[in-house]
Design brief:
Blueprint: H1 2-23, H2 25-34, E1 36-41, E2 44-48, E3 51-52, E4 54-56, H3 65-68, E5 72-76, E6 82-87, H4 93-101, E7 104-105, H5 108-111, H6 119-133, E8 145-146, E9 153-154, E10 161-162, E11 167-175, E12 180-184, E13 196-199, H7 206-218, E14 225-233, E15 239-247, E16 262-266, H8 268-275, H9 299-306
Parallel strand pairs: 1-6, 11-15
Antiparallel strand pairs: 1-2, 1-4, 2-3, 2-7, 5-6, 8-9, 9-10, 11-12, 11-13, 12-16, 14-15
Helix pairs in contact: 1-2
Bound molecules: NADPH dihydro-nicotinamide-adenine-dinucleotide phosphate and magnesium ion (MG).
The site of magnesium ion has 4 residues, from strand 13.
Length: 323
Amino acid sequence: MVVALAPCLSRVVSFRYLMTLKEDDEACRHALKSGTLLLYHELAPLLRQSRPLFAVTNVELGKGKELIREAVLLGCRETGVPQFALDVGESTAQNRNTQLCNGVFTDLRKAFFLLTEPEASLAGQALLRWHQTHGFCSATGQPTVRNQSGSQRVCPNSGVTYYPQMAPVVIVLVSDGSRCLLARQRSFPTGMYSALAGFCDLGETLEEALRRELAEEVGLEAEDLRYSASQHWPFPQSSFMVACHATVSPHKTQVSGAELEDARWCSLEEIQAALTIRKPPHNPEAQPPGFWIPPAYAVANRLIQEWPFVILPVVPSSKPYPW
Ligand SMILES: NC(=O)C1=CN([C@@H]2O[C@H](COP(=O)(O)OP(=O)(O)OC[C@H]3O[C@@H](n4cnc5c(N)ncnc54)[C@H](OP(=O)(O)O)[C@@H]3O)[C@@H](O)[C@H]2O)C=CC1
Ligand SMILES: [Mg+2]
């Protein structure tokens, strides 16, 4: 009994500690002295061997203590050590830090396919980018002021508080019972196919957004829906991805050329072959005909991985939230 409760308790303690750091600037400044830092340079994280590199906070940063104050709070390790993200910006110190920590500032989009444990790098980049782009109040045009943890910004003139935002996106893997539907946009890397996705419109439920996107992009009507998972997705801006499976009756797709370059029904064998491709081919043009799918961290990959094992429940589609 005690063994089962201990991890729960430590998680509660760690969430409460995080809450304190968000609300209490002095406590957060104090925590900066003992926490670890994920460094960025122009939003490119410091990585070593495809892993984010957490430096100790007393690392020499050129501008010293003042620069450390610009760090944003990311989370708290199970050990109770708080984690921060900091962009060293145009500081000339980045080279020194790179040598000191034996890491390399790496473009996150390029590193993404190779990165193990990308969550902290992605969240840190998204939060730092939000601060860089929300320096002014949209009501008064005056500069906004951040709290120490970076969980909010306030306009001293209007009193408006701004919080980091995510746009809700529904992503759906459609199945006709024996095949699943993958599609590609023109902007995708050559040969990559993914599940269908789309931003929710204001006032829509997820289910309505899913049905609209299916109709718009491939001319299909969803029957049964099943929630699978969710994730934060930082490209190109922060989205909150909600991933679902959907069934449709076997039907011809009508691909919208405005939205998609191509959509293809894939058999189990084709999916199994695509899952064996762990990273994008060096020269996709030279590869034999086939396709590859988003990397393991992307929730689209999870939908595709679990598709063969998903047995969709029969849910009356009139219910607004069948899952
Ligand atoms: N994690 C994963 O596994 C995957 C993630 N995704 C992500 O899902 C997201 C949505 O997919 P996508 O098919 O592009 O979406 P949509 O099908 O909704 O099409 C994108 C277009 O919608 C318009 N749009 C409407 N609302 C917004 C908004 N809040 N932010 C940005 N654009 C908006 C834009 O049009 P306009 O430019 O004309 O204004 C944009 O070009 C993308 O960010 C993509 O990176 C996609 C697949 C897999
Ligand atoms: Mg789309």
